[in-house]
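Appendix B. Chain record.
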Amino acid sequence: MNQIELIQALPKAELHVHIEGTFEPELMFAIAQRNHIDIPYKSVDEVKQAYNFHNLQSFLDIYYAGANVLVVEQDFYDLAMAYFEKCAADKVVHTEMFFDPQTHIDRGIAFAVVINGLQRACDEAKAKFGITSHLIMCFLRHLSEEAAFKTLEQALPFKDQIIAVGLDSSEVGHPPAKFERVFAKAREEGFLVVAHAGEEGPAEYVWEALDLLKVNRVDHGVRSEEDPKLMQRLIAEKMPLTVCPLSNLKLCVVDDMAKHNIRRLLQQGVHVTVNSDDPSYFGGYMNDNFIAIAEALDLSNNELKQLAKNSFEASFISDAEKQKWFQQIDALA
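Structure tokens predicted for this chain:
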């Protein structure tokens, strides 16, 4: 089979997707109208125009503005179900999705409203599509350590619904070290931990994520290549990087997909995975990301299969489930 056919047939796990970043303009506009919330756009086309941005901060500005229309449990359910439908179309059979409670709590939305809406969608996606999922609660790094501790406290009653905590939002100027004590407490409470590092921030932030936060996975991490010693460590420890190619292009982490380093990282033995990050804003869901790198970097079918295998290997599912998906990938011609 050709590359496109293989990409469409490959079962995949997505490990780096922000559920608020899957908010398509049509749904945003519909929920805004349903909740009688004014947004500064008169039509879906105007919302789409606003999705043109030039760096991480200009993206985050519209991202947080869009989140303002999410108010009741049904809104969060609708948001997540729309994403699961994209997963089903792209053969994403398992997803570990980020959510940002602080974005909502700070607007007066109860934690339970957010997580109950998302959990209801997770349950329905399993019944309807056979898609399994985990929720990862992220702290917003541009906010204080104190705010993160408060959010962690609010999450504890919902511990059985949250598999891990993460760290996202504006990276530059907010190193992982800022949240060392919060992550220590989260690990004590039994959460797995992940963190965004080495996207806009330097390779040093990846060291901090590893040594201070003691992460199970590094989100992004593409700037690790700037530090040969760090590369050796990532390879030796089989530390997964959840790479987001179209996001990297849109946010100017790379200026040309043909210059993206994911293939080099893969060939050197780094445990890289492919993900969509904020797909409604960055122009593509999972298969779009696979197709973009396959075409720009001339990936072989074996490399595509290895990337799919890496996604399951790096996931928080059981070894038995991993083996099941490995066998399905191997069975594809």
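Further analysis of this model is presented in Appendix C.
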